[in-house]
Structure formats: structure tokens, C-alpha cells
TrEMBL record:
This is Glucosyl transferase. It is found in: Membrane. GO terms for cellular component: plasma membrane. It is a multi-pass membrane protein. Residues 9-173 form the Glycosyltransferase 2-like domain. Pfam families: Glycos_transf_2. Keywords: Glycosyltransferase, Membrane, Transferase, Transmembrane, Transmembrane helix. InterPro entries: Glyco_trans_2-like, Glycosyltransferase_2, Nucleotide-diphossugar_trans. Belongs to the glycosyltransferase 2 family. It comes from Micromonospora haikouensis. It comes from the Bacteria. GO terms for molecular function: glycosyltransferase activity. The chain crosses the membrane at residues 237-258, 270-292. Residues 313-334 are annotated as: Disordered.
Length: 334
């Protein structure tokens, strides 16, 4: 095994956070030093182009527990988080933003909860979002409602990426074949015992948000497509609606033709166009169905996880999780 394992790893993705760093570091350090346990702070420098790397190097000289993982280029918040969480060495791993919107003091409470209640995952849940704009609240509510429908009720509403994971949960994440999991969906999907700690989301301490609307939309699209093949079915449904509408309009056209109130050639052209459109959509939908199956097969997510086995831990994974049975495939497509 690698160096002695710290009790706690705190993973912090940072992108151009030079203005927040001098506020963030002392506040986090005070909390962690007070725990009285070995810890590491793993800052993932997501290709910052400002004074962040220099600031981190300066801090490291005085803070031996600070570890810096630098990504070669800016890869986005989710990717930086995944990079950090999968490389953290701690027995417990907490991820938190650098801008002090997630109060570091809550970390101690999460750790207490996890130990006291024997939990593997503790979510930081925002008590209220009154400090967010109405637009942000509105879009967030829609996002969480949709995600709970797609992934299941175990996705906590209003929980972002502030959370604590046990070593077992991190190892489960590590075993997923996926390259870029959307953590806030995949973590609840793992099915570990979990709890919540509520906290007051604070104002960004300094600097500007790195999450413009385009990135929010990107995250939403990635969330949907990483858990559902439903968008591929849109063509099927449109095709079916098209066929039904076509049927009605064909009757109308024939009636008009019989009544003699049409221009010559109109009914045949009209019916042909309607019919071809509907058939094309249906065929697209059919293709989509197969693409969807390929998609879930390529994702290769296990269909289940064994929590424990009375025959012993070694026996739990004897033949490995499988996801390629037709029943499981059909299930994951739903
Ligand atoms: N972040 C990152 N890479 C990016 C964008 C953001 O590592 O490409 C980090 C950022 O430094 C911060 C966290 O992700 O620690 C959350 O970003 P931000 O506070 O800007 O998002 P918001 O809270 O406004 O949604
Ligand atoms: Mg923020």
C-alpha cells in the first residue's frame, strides 16, 4: 500500500481562484486541525491561468497536509472532482467548492454523522436557496425533479457536489468503467446507506462564478443522457403521432377529392408527403432503439452491487457484476 492512509481527504476543485484562496485556506485549515486526526487536502488545480498555482505552492510550504493535483488543461468542475475523488487516499473523502459557498465547518458534522450512524455517504443539502437568483432556483428545482424521475428517489433534492464518501464508496466508483460519471447521480445510484446534513449555502466569498448558463445546460444534458435513452425515443413517438395524423388527413383528402373540391394532383402529393414523413420518423426511432441498446452495453455499468455476503467478503465478487443479460439490459433502458 501507499503512504499511511489519512483519516480524511478533502477534495477541492479550483479554477482561477486566486482571490478566494487566501480566505479559503485558513478557514478550512482551522476546521481540519481541530479534528485532531491525520488528513490531506487535495486541491485539484483545473488548469488555472491566474495566480492560483503560485498561491498553492506558497501555501504548501507552510501546510504539509496540502496536496496539489494539477490538470494539464481546464477540464471542468465535474472532471476535476472525479480526478480528485478517485486519487484521494483518505478513509473518508469529502468534496467541497473553493469559494466558501459550502462552509468547511460542515465537514466535521458530516464526519460525525457518518461515524455515528454507520453511513457510507453523507450529502450536504442546502437548507434554503434564498440567496440564489429566482432563475437559478427555478432551473435547479426542475433539474432535481427530472433526475429523481430518471435515477430514482434516492437522489436527494438540493444536494450538489458537497458530500462525504467512505472508502468503500470511493472504491465502488473507481470500479465503474465510466470515464466521466456525473457524480451527483452516480453516487446515489451506488445504493450505499446514506444520510443528509443541511447547511446554509453562503455567498461566494470572492471572485466570480465559473458556471455560466451554458455549462449548467451542458451538465443537465449530460445528466439526462448518462442515465436515460429516452431522448432517442422521441423520433418513435413523433413517428407514431405522424402516422395517426396522416391517417386522419388521408381520409380528409379522399373525402375532398370525392366531393370534387380539390386541385388535380393535390391529394396524391399531399398523402405521399405525409406518409413518407411518418415512415421516416418511425425508421429513425427504430434505429434509435438499437443505438440505445448499444449505448447501455458500452456504458457497461453493473446491474447490481453486492452489499455483503455471509460467505465472506471474497465471495461477494466471485464472478463479478454483470450487466449484459437481456433482462438487465431491458431494465436499464427503461
Ligand atoms: N471549477 C473547476 N473547474 C471549472 C469550473 C469551476 O474546478 O472549470 C471549480 C471552482 O473553482 C469552484 C467549484 O468548481 O471551486 C465550483 O465552481 P463555482 O463556484 O464557480 O460554481 P457555482 O457555485 O457558481 O455553481
Ligand atoms: Mg460556487
Amino acid at each position: 500500500m501507499t503512504p499511511p492512509e489519512p483519516a480524511l481527504s478533502v477534495v477541492v476543485p479550483m479554477f482561477n481562484e486566486e482571490s478566494v484562496l487566501p480566505l479559503f485556506a485558513p478557514r478550512l485549515r482551522a476546521v481540519l486541525d481541530a479534528l485532531g486526526e491525520p488528513y490531506e487536502v487535495l486541491v485539484v488545480d483545473d488548469g488555472s491561468t491566474d495566480g492560483t498555482p503560485a498561491g498553492l505552492a506558497g501555501l504548501r510550504a507552510r501546510w504539509p497536509q496540502l496536496r496539489v493535483l494539477r490538470l494539464r488543461r481546464n477540464s471542468g468542475h465535474q472532471a476535476a472532482l472525479v480526478a480528485g475523488v478517485l486519487r484521494a487516499r483518505g478513509r473518508w473523502v469529502v468534496s467541497l467548492d473553493a469559494d466558501l459557498q459550502d462552509p468547511p465547518e460542515t465537514v466535521a458534522e458530516m464526519l460525525r454523522r457518518a461515524r455515528a450512524d454507520g453511513l457510507d455517504i453523507v450529502y450536504g443539502v442546502r437548507a434554503d436557496r434564498s440567496r440564489d437568483t429566482r432563475f437559478k432556483r427555478w432551473t435547479a428545482a426542475g433539474y432535481y425533479r427530472l433526475m429523481r424521475r430518471l435515477v430514482g428517489k434516492q437522489v436527494p433534492a438540493q444536494a450538489g457536489d458537497f458530500r462525504l464518501l467512505s472508502r468503500a464508496a470511493v472504491e465502488a466508483l473507481r470500479e465503474l468503467p465510466e470515464r466521466s460519471p456525473v457524480l451527483r447521480l452516480v453516487v446515489p445510484w451506488l445504493g450505499f446507506p446514506s444520510g443528509e446534513v443541511t447547511y446554509q449555502r453562503e455567498e461566494r466569498a470572492a471572485g466570480r462564478t465559473k458556471y455560466p448558463l451554458s455549462r449548467m445546460a451542458g451538465l443537465a444534458a449530460e445528466s439526462v443522457t448518462s442515465f436515460s435513452a429516452a431522448p432517442l425515443r422521441v423520433a418513435t413517438w413523433l413517428g407514431l403521432v405522424g402516422v395517426a395524423v396522416c391517417g386522419v388527413l388521408v381520409v380528409v383528402a379522399v373525402a375532398a377529392w370525392l366531393a370534387g373540391s380539390t386541385v388535380t394532383g393535390w391529394p396524391s402529393l399531399y398523402v405521399a408527403i405525409l406518409f413518407l414523413g411518418a415512415v421516416q420518423l418511425l425508421c429513425l426511432g427504430l434505429l434509435g432503439e438499437y443505438v440505445a441498446r448499444i449505448y447501455t452495453a458500452v456504458q457497461g455499468r453493473p446491474a447490481y452491487f453486492v452489499a455483503s455476503d455471509t460467505a465472506g467478503p471474497g465471495a461477494a465478487d466471485a464472478d463479478g457484476p454483470t450487466a449484459d443479460g437481456p433482462a438487465e439490459l431491458a431494465d436499464s433502458l427503461r
